[in-house]
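Example complex used in Figure S2.
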Amino acid sequence: MSDIIKLLPDSVANQIAAGEVIQRPASVIKELVENSVDAGATEISLTILDAGKTLIQIVDNGTGMSETDVRMAFERHATSKIRKADDLFHLRSMGFRGEALPSICAISEVEVRTRTDENPLGTHLVIEASKVKMQEACAAERGTVISVKRLFFNVPARRKFLKSDSVELSNIMREFERLALVNHNLRMSIDTGSKTISLRPGTFRQRIEEIWKNSLKSEHLLPVNTDTRLVKIEGFISRPEFARRRNPLQYLIVNGRNMRHPYFHKAIMNCYDQLIAPGTQPCYFLMFTVDPDTIDVNIHPTKNEIKFENEQEIWPILTSAVKLSLGRFSAVPSIDFNSDTVEIQPLRGGEVPTEPRISFNPDYNPFLESAKEHKNIDSRYRPTKVESNWQSLYEGLPSSRQSEGASQEQSVPADDLQSAIFDQNEIQAGITPICLQYSLKYIITTSHDGLMIIDQHRAHVKILYEDYLKRTGNSSIVSQTLMFPETVSLDESQQAALAEVQDDLAGLGFNVEYSDGTDWQIMSAPAMLKPHDIRDVLLRILDSVTEDSANYGNEQLSSTTLREKAALIMARSGAIRRGVRLTVKEMEDLTSRLFSLPDPMLTPNGNKVYTILSEQQIGRLFDSAAIL
Ligand code: ADP
Ligand code: MG
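Predicted assembly (628 residues):
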């Protein structure tokens, strides 16, 4: 048999390589910006047309390339950044594989204008599908302008694989944010046709605040800072009460490079254990600085996966830095040791716990006579009759009372469920079990089957969710016109999502009108929302629509699903948080309202709302203590 193995022509090899490095327009942006950063640019600006499918142009003021270098740059494995294999272990540049430009020019039409300091004239080069179409001298600013046109024009299968413009554009924006965060000291801008962002050079914190000014506030963040022989870790983490269910902002950076690192992610998550609701995630922005010799960047073509030589040793350093920050800035709600009776404050539903007061009274001695006065149980803990003054949890919400009757009619009669769960004798005697709040998170009460522990936040989410679903179902939703319409700036993908669901949103009480540029105005919103939550809830709904279209293609979201999603988002934002003190009356209301629902046990996404410790279980706890 004759020899059958042939070397692939470069153009084909480049197309194959492009499959790994360039998956979508956002990958082109990453590679080109990283090249500009490596070229020492202090200003980088991007112009995008049709979500990058028609044009991605980048202008930088870096070193530029000589006439020969620019030709070389498009050859496979041509790089100015390393010379020998050993250099791989002392990398200080973003690039080193010499793959990006040849990959990009294999699947698009590339035009470059570039000039170095030494040359009075620059070079103009056009390459299409790896073939040089034109090269000539030209007048040019110092630096480089690269235009990538008609991406994937010769790879129809890849072009078809691309998502809708709104999704690709949102990928581009996420990539731009990542790059802008890492390169906070550079002036950077992006113009997508409908949205322009210009960022001034600044500190890491300023950059975070500038990029996410619509969704993140300075007071949400806690600084993290540690410097050891192995690693320096600096940056910010979010306070636990700002943990998010969707789109948490999570950024890990090592030596100026974004990375995905599930192991370190886990370490951070562990620190928030028990501090945040299940299913929510904190935001974090952490920069690691390590000796470049101790990491391997060359694991994956996109260079986002990084192997740390000292991973195991860094784990405890990271964990203690994060915990220290959570503890030092009193992010953990804690009991006020100064008062030994529970201090009850009026509920301000959904309020965020203020700075907890960690202090203790050095004069307090529980064995002294005078201490007994403190010990007197507050009269508010006396068993009281169940009477639903649920309205107090809906204060200021005009529609709650009207819909209450309707909502109870459809559910299992409250009395039936309550008597099944609570002690019959007590119910008959017209008293309800004592409710106590524990750790500002749980309501403790007794039930027929044992000691009941209710998660206050989940209980309220469940109640609000059901209530809201019912109201939207029978069109009894009350929309309030805002005295001062709230302006919200929407990115491309959020605008696309809005176009998709604007009518359904109106049915839910949200009326949003176009204002100017990327700005929209919220004219009215569901009455049950607190004013400061309106904008956040709308953005979360739009983001959830975008996420769905990213996950399930561009199928229209059914209005029922949207209704359920919106109900959950609003319930979560309106529900009492952990860390908020409740009055006994509020706890009783919450309990009685919860058990008037057909399925009080689980939240809409299947989390336990309450648990019961039986007498036997409690007994066993004492037995095992005896063995110890
Ligand atoms: P790598 O970045 O891995 O070296 P690339 O294919 O991305 O490979 O780029 C090839 C070479 O082209 C780089 O090593 C660099 O010398 C040059 N280059 C690319 N972009 C620029 C730019 N914007 N300014 C100056 N030189 C550049
Ligand atoms: Mg590169």
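The chain has 19 helices and 22 strands. Confidence is low (pLDDT under 50) at residues 331-416, 552-556.
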